[in-house]
Design brief:
It is an enzyme of class 3 (hydrolase). With about 260 residues, this protein is of the alpha+beta class. It is about 35% helix and about 25% strand. Helix 1 packs antiparallel against helix 2 (about 40-60) and helix 5 runs parallel beside helix 6 (about 215-225). The protein binds D-MYO-inositol-1-phosphate and calcium ion (3 copies).
């Protein structure tokens, strides 16, 4: 299957949702606290509702997993294709969104048999639409994109993020951040894992790593990186899975050296 139609639909929905979040932020935003260091807004919820309704309209048999409302099984049993599941992050970068930092996006992916086949990330403030279909080049606003060619950690610009909870994994992530800040050209913390992955895919950043992400954070972005010629594993070097404990996404050339450097 080519999933051409699914890609077109996902692109259109991501744009609509991106414009929705921009508009609603200006109109009426209420911030609440899910857990310490973990914010959510009414706009995260309305964006997910908009995306879910639009997917339902086009693909009523498909299951949907979104950050704010969890799993919705396919409604129309006669069209239930079983193995198809959409992953939705209605706003990735909610803390930025809540504070007014213009670095957030909408992320939509379609998985079939556990593998992403379509991935779309839309950054409304920059009007940038990243999209990928398995087996095809990754695109930014319709133009093919490539990962960078940097092949030494010492020359690399990296990005990471930290789990909202405090504990052993958080401390390990901080140690890695300190070590890589010393040994690379710099480590950014943008606050949106989907944007981090999209920026690795288009070569703005050489590599990204993070622990404890969820399928909706990385479902679209990891396909973008693969389709742009990059490499994805977990931080230990094992094959990547969206339900796995960590992600290491790079341009490929840096992967091995960075994986060793993360063993601090
Ligand atoms: C968060 C962002 C952030 C990452 C967090 C995620 P949210 O997603 O992707 O970069 O560090 O772990 O939870 O909550 O803004 O959708
Ligand atoms: Ca969140
Ligand atoms: Ca997220
Ligand atoms: Ca989110």
């Amino acid at each position: 299957m080519s999933f051409h139609q699914e890609l077109r639909v996902a692109e259109s929905i991501a744009r609509q949702a991106g414009l929705h979040v921009l508009r609603e932020r200006a109109r009426h935003m209420e911030v609440s606290i899910k857990a310490p260091n973990d914010l959510v807004t009414n706009v995260d919820r309305s964006s997910e509702q908009l995306i879910t309704a639009a997917i339902r309209e086009h693909f009523p048999g498909d299951a949907i997993l979104g950050e704010e409302y969890g799993v919705t099984p396919g409604e129309d049993a006669s069209q239930n294709t079983g193995s198809r599941r959409w992953l939705i992050d209605p706003i990735d970068g909610t803390a930025n969104f809540a504070m007014g930092i213009p670095l957030y996006c909408v992320s939509i992916a379609l998985q079939v048999d556990g593998q992403t086949v379509v991935g779309v990330i839309y950054e409304p403030n920059r009007d940038e639409l990243f999209s990928a279909r398995r087996g095809m080049p990754a695109l930014l606003n319709g133009e093919p994109i490539d990962v960078s060619s940097c092949d030494r950690v010492a020359n690399a610009v990296l990005v990471t993020g930290f789990p909202s909870g405090r504990g052993e994994v958080f401390e390990r992530a901080i140690e890695q951040f300190v070590h890589l800040t010393r040994s690379s050209r710099g480590v950014r913390r943008l606050g949106s894992a989907a944007i981090d992955l999209a920026y690795v895919a288009c070569g703005r950043i050489d590599a990204f790593w993070e622990y404890g992400l969820s399928p909706w954070d990385t479902g679209a972005g990891y396909l973008l990186v693969e389709c742009a010629g990059g490499k994805i594993t977990d931080i230990e070097g094992a094959p990547y899975h969206v339900d796995g404990p960590s992600i290491l996404a790079s341009n490929g050339a840096l992967h091995h050296e960075l994986q060793n450097a993360l063993r601090v």
